[in-house]
Amino acid sequence: MAKQCAPWYPTIFPDRCDGCEGREAPRCIQFCPNDVFEIRNGKAIVARPYNCVYGCTACEPVCPRKAITFPQRQTITAVTSAMKDKGLLHKVKCKKCGKIFWTNRDTDLCFDCERK
């Protein structure tokens, strides 16, 4: 399998992580078979980010404090906003006749009203 171009590893929000206080070890450390995490100063950290398997997000739901996130959420947001700018169809109400129509152009007149 070819190596992925984009970096892929979790981010831990230190203000949310409490190191799974009251447990023997943080759940992410116990759960991850790739040894991505370790504990420092009572909190989990991403010590070996490149051990993380590209696309894996299995540790995210394991965290009881929702302190783990992955780059995919940011990427999806960027892709979604970029798609809106790519000329995709959007619903418009004609300002002249009131007809609802779909277009990929910046116009507020339907095709019939433009011809008149």
Q: Would you write up a description of this structure?
A:
Strands 1-4 form a two-stranded antiparallel ribbon. Strands 2-3 form a two-stranded antiparallel sheet. Residues 73-77 have low confidence and may be disordered. Helices cover 20% and strands 17% of the residues. It has 2 domains: 11-80, 2-Layer Sandwich (Alpha-Beta Plaits); 87-115, no CATH class. The protein has 116 residues and is of the alpha+beta class.
Brief summary:
By secondary structure, the chain is an alpha+beta fold.
Order of helices and strands: EHEEEHEEH
* Spatial strand order of the main sheet: 1-4
Determine the structural class based on helices, strands and strand pairing. Answer: alpha+beta
Largest sheet: 2 strands, antiparallel
How does the overall form come out from the CA principal axes?
rod-shaped
**What would CATH call the architecture of the largest domain?**
2-Layer Sandwich
Low-confidence stretches: 73-77
The end-to-end span amounts to 58 Å
Proportion of strand residues: 15-25%
> Residue-averaged pLDDT, rounded?
82
Instruction: Report the count of strand segments.
Output: 6
Percent helix range:
10-25%
